[in-house]
Amino acid sequence: MNFAFASETHLTKLRNDTTYLRVSKGKQGKASYLKNGLHLVLPPLKPAVTSSVKVSVSRPEDKLLNDVQLYPNPVTDQINLKYTISRNTNVTIKIMDVLGNDITTMFSSRVDSGDHNINYPINNKLTRGFYFVRVVAGTESVIKRISVL
To answer: Which domain holds residue 122?
Structure first.
């Protein structure tokens, strides 16, 4: 990406790789940078070459819900759920069938930041088959699939 300012009279053009910057001479004859525009320095671009540089935008500290683990899978008598919350928020954990219908709510409350464990016995509450456990924390959600034997 190249960036250049619109041309004006008495402008001097400087070139450094793929970055363009125009400098205006003030009343005292000194060069002053124009105040509007982006100041970007980009590496030189080569035609028909794919870059192997990886750019990571997401920050793990910005995620509210981390490390959701559901065990054992397949489930026989009890569901164990472990998760980490980065700040205080409302957490809701529901079990859904394969059609997306809510079967039961395992947990729904406001929790503090840190690691949390939930143990939920499924004695005669779930029949054999596949289910989904949905953990919702704030606006984030994680869905895990379980099978009940």
So the answer is: 63-148
Q: Map residue 129 onto helix, strand or coil.
A: strand
Mean pLDDT, the chain, integer:
78
Task: Read off the pTM.
Answer: 0.58
Kindly report the number of other CB atoms within 10 A of residue 37's CB atom: 13
Phi, psi of 99 (to 5 degrees): -90, -5
Residue type, 76: T
130 found inside a domain: yes
Based on the fold, state whether residues 71 and 42 are members of the same structural domain.
Answer: no
Do 91 and 39 lie in one domain? The reply is no
85 within 8 A of 68, measured Cβ to Cβ: no
Q: How far apart are CA 71 and CA 79, in angstroms?
A: 6
**If you ran DSSP here, which 8-state letter would residue 45 be given?**
P
- The structural domain count of the chain equals 2
Rounded to the nearest angstrom, the gap between the alpha carbon of residue 123 and the centroid of all alpha carbons in its chain is 37
